[in-house]
Write a structure and sequence with these properties.
With 178 residues, the chain is of the alpha/beta class. The protein has 4 helices and 7 strands, in the order ββββαβαβαβα. The chain has a domain of 110 residues: STAS domain (Transcription Regulator spoIIAA, 2-Layer Sandwich). The strands form 2 sheets. It has a 5-stranded mixed sheet with strand order 3-4-5-6-7, with helices on both faces. A two-stranded antiparallel sheet has the order 1-2. The longest helix is centred in the last third of the chain and has 16 residues. The protein is globular. About 12% of the residues have low confidence.
Length: 178
Amino acid sequence: MPVQDWDAVSKNYTLFMIPKPLFTRLSISMESTNTNWQTWPQPLDLAALGTRHKESKLKLSLETRNRGDVMIVHCQGRIVYRDEAAALSRLVGEVLQNGGKVILDLSGVSSIDSAGIGELAFLYTWARSQNADLKCASPSPFVRDLLDLTNLDSVLEIHPSVGEALAAFQPGEVCADC
């Protein structure tokens, strides 16, 4: 029986791709493809205020207050990719640029993703490079778990409350008799 040379034997296969009909393709929007499904129109204005409802594009609200030379930034919403994380960096960066002291109050943060975690790490390293000080306070259990999982809790200084974070900025009392 003769030995076949497999390199010499080649076969060409032609594949044809036939697209699915348009109506059975997956929709790229979140709308239902069921035409019997009913939606109700959203109210155009708020009755109590008499104004039209406008939803903010930014899902993070940042409120600042000063306590002496410490700026407290209360974060409400989510710290996620794009606008929210960038807004936090802009605000905190302005204070840190001048060697300031900042406390991030994370009690109102409902959600944080990898970009938000990265932004916190970036702000911490930037604060160190500017001889500034950044502390975090009151993370929700969800945020605290994420900080633990990512090991960022070993880098950031995290306090259970804003009051304790403020106290950490105060120099310790020196005992003259010790």
